[in-house]
Design brief:
Oligomer: single chain
Strand content: 5-15%
Largest sheet: 3 strands, mixed
Order of helices and strands: HHHHEEEEE
Distance between the termini: 79 Å
């Protein structure tokens, strides 16, 4: 079968031979026809290796974000308990879960009585607008315990000991590092 483009290329090469021998014409480079199958396969394998390294790092990002949010919520809750105690004659909020929630989210007087509106008597608080959801188990409930230290079982969002003012995330198990327990945050 006759191919004009290859026939023209051969004719050009034949004419260039005597001139090339005399050193007058630069050599003709062969035409590039694209990538070979092997080259494409090598690139695909390299991309697969890079993806296997990078993707696991991003899949853990969501869990890490929840854990960091949990640490921030605990820090804020614990700080507000300390502020409440400082303003209420060294008495911590509680002793029941309903008392704790009311005393932290409503206005209070010096001894911890609550009111939905501020006044000259109910001049403290509110310390929280609502009890936040635990970002790991999505619960916003509070369990009062006498255990010290409290141990999370996952039944509530938070666990609180009013005697020791220990406040933990009520989550059973360890975080993404598989070393630190959630209730040790």
């Amino acid at each position: 079968m006759f191919n004009r483009s290859s026939h023209a290329a051969r004719a050009t090469r034949k004419r260039a031979e005597p001139a090339r021998a005399a050193g007058r014409v630069a050599p003709i480079a062969p035409k590039s026809r694209g990538f070979t199958l092997i080259e494409i396969l090598i690139v695909v394998v390299i991309l697969g290796i890079l993806a296997s390294i990078v993707i696991p790092q991003f899949s853990n990002a969501s869990e890490t974000a929840k854990e960091n949010t949990l640490k921030d919520e605990l820090r804020y809750l614990r700080t507000q308990v300390i502020v409440y105690k400082a303003q209420h004659r060294d008495i911590a909020p509680g002793p029941t879960a309903a008392d704790f929630i009311a005393q932290m989210t409503l206005h209070t007087d010096e001894v911890g009585n609550t009111s939905s509106s501020a006044s000259a008597v109910f001049k403290y608080g509110p310390y929280l607008s609502t009890i936040p959801k635990n970002p790991v188990n999505a619960l916003d409930t509070l369990e009062i315990t006498t255990d010290s230290p409290p141990a999370g079982d996952g039944s509530h969002g938070w666990e609180y000991n009013p005697v020791t003012q220990e406040l933990i995330a009520d989550v059973d198990g360890t975080d993404s590092s598989d070393v630190t327990r959630y209730d040790a945050y």
